[in-house]
Fold each of these.
Amino acid sequence: MLGGSHPHLTESHELMLTEVPGLDLKREVERARAAARDWDELVRALPEPPRAAFEADMLAEKLDYGPRMLCNTLRPHFITRPMLALVLRAMGPVMRALRRLSERAATDATLQDYVGMTAAEKEMAAIHPRTRETSAMSRMDAFLGEEGLYLVELNGECPTGVGYNERLFRVFGRFAPMRAFAGRHRLLVTDSTDDVLQTLLAGYREWGGQGTPRVAIVDWEHVVTRGEFEIFAEHFERQGVPARLVDPRALEMSGGRLVADGVPIDLVYRRLLVSEFLERRDECKAFEDAYRAQAACFVNNLRTKFLHKKLVFAALWEPRFQGMLSDEERALVKAHVPWTAPVRPGPLEVEGRRVDLAEHVVARQADLVMKPNDDYGGRGLVIGCEVASDVWAAALAEGLAQADDPSRMQVVQARIPLHQESFMDLDGVDRTFYVDLDPFFFGDRMHGFLTRVSARSVSNVSGGGGQIPTYVLE
């Protein structure tokens, strides 16, 4: 049932494209859907149901996610080269604007307060990490469909998905329909696993490290994403870089060095969220002491909270900060970033008009969403068009009451059109899923995607969705 990969399948490490003049996005989306229909026909022609073999292959590749498999469909996602060009053209300048704001925020209390950084987060931001790049690895959460391209959040801390993506490409490369499909369609694979290693090593060299570092992949021992950490450790070891998985509570300081199981650690690949570290700070003393003393290089460093706050998108719209953006960046924000603002009592500017926030949010309920400023997995998200007016009013009242507490601030954002496609689930049943397309960034260079599919409008894996690989159609 699971065949070998096809020689027509190629890998592209650098896809530096410019915007295609006269792009007809609806036509390109239809091209991708036509390829998907071709794929589905090949799956339906299989002589036996593929679920058992497909799941066994995923399990062998460490693609289990808690009690279930990470991927929940029998086909990957497809986009075309012109669609990729649009993503590159829009996201590169927006990311550069965000990074510029982040560099300023390291020492700018106005920006820190605007996005809701807590006193402890500011304390971490005040420590100089000896590396310039605050968020060397990040992920932009976005939707791309015939309605357009929309950027909704930035995961600027320690994004998941790159390691899983490599293994998903392996699984689909061996899936029997791929041989015939790749004979009809030329495909580009965008695997970013080595980008992670090279970014870590670049950070280590900038920090002042020499030679080959000993790497610790640091997060809680029992997180559901541990399989991805194992994937990275295996990849690093194959490239001659020793790596181990370490719970932050197991770290020690000895002789001025950070140590895990008696072995000195030179480079920390941080997967532990800053907020989770701060919540259990007393349990992670060596982790904090090493960072303060720069006894090891930390990538990403602990200044990432600014970029990880959802209000960082509000900063792109805030008139006080508009002067930090170029004309091109402001135009791309207006075209692709939904209007975003903090839930705070009083007036604000919307589309050039001064309005009262509470009145505006009530009047435009169907066009807005509210969510916590600092959470993940879709937790706390309230979609105006999906709830009754009293539920919406209660969410607004709660947000206004919490406006002065940086740890509990709420965000209001314009609702965007969500892209949907038909996929066969693992039992071969056609289902309609929401699909997001989330590019990985290494500095301001984009390469590869996390693509999630979900029956719910909140597309996230922790909430029951699945991850699939995205292939680019030539």
Amino acid sequence: MWKVFGEEAVMVQFGPLLKERMIDLSRRKKDRARFLDLIEQVEIVHYLDIHQTLHVFRMDLPRTCTADDVEFLRGFVQRIIKGTEFPMVDLDGEEQKAVLIISAEEPEDEHRVRMAEWYKMKREMDQKREA
């Protein structure tokens, strides 16, 4: 059975469960109030890279977060990981490779960018034909 920080789960639950478990595991940590304020604002999604057998968690912060907030979260999460006996992810008692990406940037919509370039090129071609 899959587990995230010692809690059984199926993969579709991994992102929200990681957030919930970090909140649970932060109980006795200094600066917990700041951590809770920030973690309430995030969404955590999970991906499995099957080629590397690597669990990738992406913590997306709102754009209002500062670089200091990102750095604080990084350090706080590291303290949680070091302070627990459970691995981030395990399968039937065997620890799995896992990584957490903390980001305050919105992913760029590549399709929109490509289409904008295509429309620009088409408009230029149409103008040349009309001239």
Amino acid sequence: MTCFTRCGGFCYPTTPRPIFIFGDCDEGNSIINPVLPTSFGYFVSTGGTATANSIIPLTLASSRGSKITQSTTLGAITLTPGEYEITYSVNSTIPAGGTASVALYDNGALLPNSTTTVSGTAGNNVALTKTVVLTVLSTSTLSLQNTTASDFTYLNANVLVKEI
């Protein structure tokens, strides 16, 4: 690793990411701290039938950190306090009623502005996607749910949760 110096600056190359301290000559030192990676969790479901108003079961596929984990509630996600960007995608077929709809729920309550609804011809394939930001004040359970009045078949579903 090469450390660039100005007016006697130095660095700490053995930290996870180098911390550079530059002497400003006249103003003292400027410290550039490392950017730490955020936690994330990627959850998937390979398809099935989601009954009306039920959780679409997700399984943890990949993660970093300990803030976002698989919940003990079937198919749900546990979040510790923090701020998160949540993106979901569900590829499904429109049921006989002509509408497919999914939404995110936090501790059993519908998250505002998290619902995606698509109407069309029954049997057509559709993609239901949405990104929301959620501030969690105490440990909570996040779930993706079929909010359609009837069952629908989905080909796959995934949720990416990133700490921001």
